[in-house]
Amino acid sequence: MTAVEPVPDAPAAVVDADGRRLLAIADFHAGIESALRVERGVNLDSNADERRERLQALLADTGATELVVVGDFMHSIGGPGGAERGEIEVLVESLSVPVTVVKGNHDGDLGEWAAVDVTDAAGVRIGDVGFAHGHTWPAPEVLRADVVCVGHEHPQVRLTDEVGGSRVERVWLRGGLDPVAFAGQYDAGELPDADAAGDLVVFPAFNDRAGGTWTNVDGRGFLAPFLPDALRDGQAYLLDGTRLGRYDRI
């Protein structure tokens, strides 16, 4: 049985695949506060403890026996600073489950010093679920999975009420995977046929300070090289499960 089910009110999903129960998150961006201070002059207290406790609670509540980070466990693109490295080391040591990180564009040399398994940037397939961060082209075997999970995008929508007030909400994006979006990157026969392709799920960022792509606002382009073309009839869902409809028509 293959299932990728978002956890209600959380930027995380439970994945049942290959007889394993995984908790999957994307874009943790450990130590982001230090980077915001240096890069943008924004001073924020660290939320490292809150992020760790939230993740521990999700693992306990879901009964997951493994954690998969769908890229960008780290925040700095170069070598990690002290706060960032410290947050990851304390977090990993506090967890009682193995951690797999699907290498993202921010994960640098993570595998050389953290007690985690780091995959190739092209992603990994576990049973019938494929995982890739999304900053580069996924491996063909990942794209042939029943469900393909990606991060990188930090999808958000801007919602406006009748009196002009607005707010930004993190969302999930889910739709059919369109192989045509990948056709120029792979040899014939490597991609699934259009009628056999699975679903594509774009994860919201776990870290609510990481910003994101406003998917329903003109001029805010997607970051992944295959989006939005690869997302067929993509629907947007709030973290509480509310379906907003087509992400591009909200």
Automatic annotation (TrEMBL):
Calcineurin-like phosphoesterase domain: residues covered: 21-135
Alphabetical list of Pfam families matching this protein: Metallophos
SUPFAM superfamilies attached to this UniProt entry: Metallo-dependent phosphatases
InterPro entries to which the protein is assigned, alphabetical: Calcineurin-like_PHP, Metallo-depent_PP-like, Pesterase_MJ0037-like
Domain of life: Archaea
Protein name as it appears in the record: Metallophosphoesterase
Origin species: Halorubellus litoreus
Lineage, uppermost ranks: Archaea, Methanobacteriati, Methanobacteriota, Stenosarchaea group, Halobacteria
